[in-house]
Amino acid sequence: MKKSMKKRKSGIMILDLSDPRAVELQVGMIPKIKALFRDEISELDDESGTRRKKASTVEEAISKEVPILEQSMKQLKEGRVITAN
Q1: C-alpha distances in Å from residue 2, one per residue of 26, 27, 37
Q2: What percent of the residues of the chain are helix, what percent strand, and what percent coil, each to the nearest 5?
Q3: How far apart are CA 63 and CA 70, in angstroms?
Q4: In angstroms, rounded to a whole number, what is the distance separating the alpha carbons of residues 78 and 85?
Q5: Burial level of 16, CB count in 10 A (0-12/13-18/19+)?
Q6: Between the N and C ends of the chain, which has fewer C-beta atoms within 10 Å?
Q7: In angstroms, rounded to a whole number, what is the distance separating the alpha carbons of residues 84 and 45?
Q8: CA-CA distance, 63 to 73, in Å (whole number)?
Q9: What's the pLDDT at 80?
Q10: What pTM was computed for the model?
């Protein structure tokens, strides 16, 4: 496997979804080979879901603030801004 990989210009990704594992861990140590196993893929999915939830929360906060900002900008254009002393 190492010899054949030396000849390749690009790498290979191996996804081992089986339980128990069908691919040895050492395979991922060969240059130009990235091996991902079922548990690693699950962790990536969990992390991705967490990021999506955080992004959704930020989007909700922004969507609440945009109308307030738009109203403030409209009042500023009309010269109806009240300032505190």
Answers
A1: 11, 9, 20
A2: 60, 10, 25
A3: 11
A4: 21
A5: buried
A6: C
A7: 49
A8: 16
A9: 67
A10: 0.47
What six digits make up the tokens of 31?
A: 């240059």
Query: How far is residue 28's CA from residue 23's CA, in Å, rounded to a whole number?
Result: 9
Query: How far is the CA of 81 from the CAs of 1, 34, 73, 76, 78, in angstroms?
Result: 72, 59, 9, 6, 8
Q: Which two tokens stand for residue 1?
A: 């496997």
Element (H, E) at 49: helix 38-78
Give tens-digit pLDDT for 24-81. 888 888 888 888 898 888 888 788 888 888 888 888 888 888 888 888 888 888 876 6
Residue with tokens 């738009």: 70
What's the pLDDT tens digit per position in 43-58?
A: 887 888 888 888 888 8
Q: Is the pLDDT of residue 85 over 60?
A: no
